[in-house]
Design a protein that fits this description.
rod-shaped; Alpha-Beta Plaits; alpha+beta; 3 helices
């Protein structure tokens, strides 16, 4: 009789503590710094460059935004630095490249080529 109660107690004890130990998940994501360069065509003046830079800097995960622009050829390049975490699941968000492209297009700029590098 005592063995029966002892075995039930051990079983319940193991069930409670196994869910405590195995139910916890650790955040294994790593912080990553990246640089994006996006070339574009379009017409900008000094004021609109500053406005677009401000909008770019307000995008989520962006830590630095800079535009280099040549008025004579109407070509430019966006430089962005981001700080984001590696994705561990589908619900984890990172820097949204679609929002970057939409922002350029909404300012009458035609995106050409995007390159990215991981910074150390």
């Amino acid at each position: 009789m005592k063995i029966k109660y002892l075995s039930k107690f051990c079983l319940i004890f193991l069930m409670i503590f196994s869910t405590k130990f195995f139910g916890q998940t650790k955040d294994t994501s790593i912080e990553v710094k990246k640089q994006y360069q996006y070339s574009f065509l379009g017409q900008l003046n000094a004021q609109s460059i500053m406005e677009v830079e401000k909008k770019l800097a307000s995008l989520e995960f962006v830590t630095m935004a800079k535009i280099k622009y040549k008025a004579d050829s109407q070509k430019g390049e966006v430089f962005l630095h981001t700080q984001e975490r590696t994705a561990n699941s589908e619900s984890d968000k990172g820097f949204d490249l679609i929002e970057l492209k939409k922002l350029l297009i909404s300012n009458n700029l035609s995106p050409i080529e995007l390159t990215s590098t991981t910074l150390k």
